[in-house]
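Lab meeting minutes (informal)
Scribe: AK
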Amino acid sequence: MVDRTFIDELASKAPTPGGGGASAYCGALAAALSSMVCNLTTGKKAYAAVEDEVQQAAKELASLTDELVKLVDEDARVFTPLADAYKMPKETETQKQEKEAALQQALVGACDVPVSIMKACTRVIELAEMLAEKGSRMAVSDAGVSVLFAKAALQGASLNVLINCASMTDRARAEGYLAEVEHMLNIYTKRADAVYASVVKELDK
């Protein structure tokens, strides 16, 4: 049932997919798990009061899953010009300038994609949080797994931003990325941890 293509490519010595793509894939799994919780909740009389909210969440989660799957490929796409820039010659002053210009341009794309992954994962965390509270009790553990995966994806993608910002000469741009990353991490790792704790507490009853 499981297609190992992505996993085998990830395990190979090829530069892509790497941590960014794996983070996006993990985020897509998180969104898909929360979608499952939606599907196990809708149509049940016991959850009629939250039917509309859960159906809306299901639509959004389907969109987030698609977005994160696309970001797996997008992460690989933006890595190519970055890798090419690092390989450019730097024997003459002109070559050094051309290499640095290409590198700095590529670093922007290499930061934008993991930031997009992080933003998508923050929304998955929000929806998993709602589903852990209001969704089917039969699937509360799945909501917990979803939020853990989304947190891992969030943190994983942040590392790509950190490593790329370190090479940016435009420090104002770099500090902007870093502030955005820190903001998302500060808020959403705590929210994810709280959801996980609430799920564990419920399962321990």
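Next up, CB showed the second protein from the same session:
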Amino acid sequence: MAKFCGKIGYATMVEESPGVWIEKIVERQHFGDWVSNTAKLQAQEGLNDDLVIANDLSIVADPYAKKNFHSIRYATYMGTKWRVRMVKEAYPRLTLVLGGVYNDSNGNQ
């Protein structure tokens, strides 16, 4: 089982102007283990196939992660932000199931 040390992105809602709320990402450093590590190319209608990973990442849950596990949006792996598809709580750990590449509301990766 390989070790993980990287950033996890949490979404928080902040009021940009009166009555207008936007999602702001807060990154926090976490440590953990890779439970499984797989990748595949998914055929698309466009020109190129998409790379999709189906990795399970088990991180040590600090108090912030335990309280805000529902707002985890991505995990950084090999320089890319990967979308978190599901979070399984098994305190003192959280298992994150990763999917495709994460794109924020502005289309940035």
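CB comment: Residues 3-101 form one domain.
No objections, moving on.
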